């Protein structure tokens, strides 16, 4: 079997075009910014190889330069996809320079074969290395498998590209022409094809992970406030309580209910009522430590589960929270907002049902006693042999 370079390049171009066409069908046009960058990368890569193949038949200098610009832009788009998925990445400035200078230097120095092959290959290899850097840095981040896949594929491609640059620039007689049946050209065409498909595949897995995360976030959070919903809270608090039982850690559950919230809706409208709930949740969340849980229990009722905390600490938190809520929520009539709460502490052997029941009873007493206060729940009483709690 002979591997003809021209055939391999046509196959590479078709393959990348197929990926470029398949991506929008699989991922959708209106998906995340990261997915859109990857689609742009695939299209740009395909156009680059199309221009490269068309160049000798049309206008070699113009189309070859255009090809460099498209292929370079494709790596720039990969870098942008990595930033969209992983947050701020290093090397953005270098990438911007490489995007401009690679095709510019190639086009201006087109008449010198050694220059243009050396320049373009080093420029493209630098861009691949910058995508690798964006995936692997900062080193403290855990590298997910898709990142490894793209990293290894692009690192391999960068090595072959540097090899071609060195041969073209410094050993020009050994490497006369890009389309010549030189073993390096055959290897480059094959590695290009495999690595590009693998990196696109890696990025598709990234998109899938992102979609999965977004779905889980949606399923776990309350749409209005962004706090945990009751289902997700139940799952996470069971884990927290199991841990507390294992280490005999204390903890506290607080059930809070905004006072006279119906009046807020009736006087100022439902939209303002929603805004008040959102602000209340924001204040609640910002008062908690890492590891504590906040839940929208339902309507204008919220819950917080404090890990490794005593009731005294919960009382202090409650006071701070009450002041913060009063400061954060100012209703149009000048009235401020307050809440009632039931505080249920636990040491061990607590179940969520028991905590909620005790906190709810204390909350009921707080409402009955005139609202705007937090009352402590009766201590936990273990069930008796008949299954009922023993008298306190
Ligand atoms: N704007 C808005 N209102 C809500 C939402 N969920 C529940 N409510 C309203 O919250 C109000 C709760 O009223 P009540 O249960 O009478 O409680 P309250 O007026 O706070 O009175 P107390 O709890 O006894 O102090 C109702 O008017 C509900 O319509 C929501 O998501 N958005």
Automatic annotation (TrEMBL):
It catalyses: 2 GTP = 3',3'-c-di-GMP + 2 diphosphate. It is an enzyme of class 2 (transferase). Residues 249-379 form the GGDEF domain. Keywords: Membrane, Transmembrane, Transmembrane helix. PROSITE patterns: GGDEF (PS50887). Its EC number is 2.7.7.65. It holds the Pfam family GGDEF. InterPro entries: Diguanylate_Cyclase, GGDEF_dom, Nucleotide_cyclase, Rev_trsase/Diguanyl_cyclase. Residues 370-392 are annotated as: Disordered. It comes from the Bacteria. The chain crosses the membrane at residues 6-25, 37-56, 62-82, 94-113, 119-137, 149-172, 184-207. NCBIfam families: GGDEF (TIGR00254). This is diguanylate cyclase.
């Amino acid at each position: 079997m002979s591997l003809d370079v021209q055939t391999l390049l046509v196959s590479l171009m078709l393959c990348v075009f197929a990926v470029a066409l398949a991506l929008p069908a699989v991922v959708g046009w209106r998906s995340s910014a990261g997915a859109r960058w990857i689609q742009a990368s695939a299209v740009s890569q395909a156009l680059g190889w199309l221009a490269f193949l068309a160049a000798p038949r049309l206008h070699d200098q113009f189309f070859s330069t255009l090809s460099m610009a498209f292929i370079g832009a494709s790596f720039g788009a990969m870098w942008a996809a990595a930033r969209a998925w992983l947050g701020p990445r290093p090397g953005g400035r270098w990438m911007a320079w490489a995007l401009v200078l690679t095709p510019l230097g190639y086009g201006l120095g087109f008449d010198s074969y050694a220059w243009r092959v050396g320049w373009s290959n080093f420029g493209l290899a630098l861009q691949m290395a910058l995508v690798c850097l964006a995936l692997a840095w900062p080193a403290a981040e855990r590298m997910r498998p898709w990142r490894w896949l793209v990293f290894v594929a692009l690192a391999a491609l960068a090595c072959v590209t540097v090899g071609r640059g060195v041969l073209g620039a410094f050993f020009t007689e050994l490497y006369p022409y890009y389309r010549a049946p030189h073993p390096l050209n055959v290897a480059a065409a094959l590695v290009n094809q495999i690595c590009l498909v693998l990196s696109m595949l890696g990025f598709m897995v990234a998109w899938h992970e992102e979609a999965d995360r977004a779905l889980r976030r949606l399923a776990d959070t309350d749409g209005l406030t962004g706090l945990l919903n009751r289902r997700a809270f139940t799952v996470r608090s069971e884990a927290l309580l199991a841990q507390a039982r294992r280490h005999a850690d204390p903890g506290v559950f607080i059930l809070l209910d905004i006072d006279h919230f119906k009046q807020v809706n009736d006087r100022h409208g439902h939209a303002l009522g929603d805004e008040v709930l959102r602000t209340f949740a924001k204040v609640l969340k910002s008062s908690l430590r890492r590891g504590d849980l906040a839940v929208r229990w339902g309507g204008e009722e919220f819950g917080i589960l404090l890990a490794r905390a005593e009731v005294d600490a919960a009382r202090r938190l409650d006071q701070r929270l009450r002041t913060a809520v009063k400061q954060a929520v100012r209703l149009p009539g000048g009235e401020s907002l307050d809440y009632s709460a039931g505080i249920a502490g636990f040491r061990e052997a607590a179940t969520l049902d028991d905590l909620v029941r005790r906190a709810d009873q204390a909350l009921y007493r707080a409402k009955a006693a005139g609202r705007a206060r937090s009352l402590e729940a009766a201590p936990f009483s273990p069930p008796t042999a008949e299954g009922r709690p023993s008298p306190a």
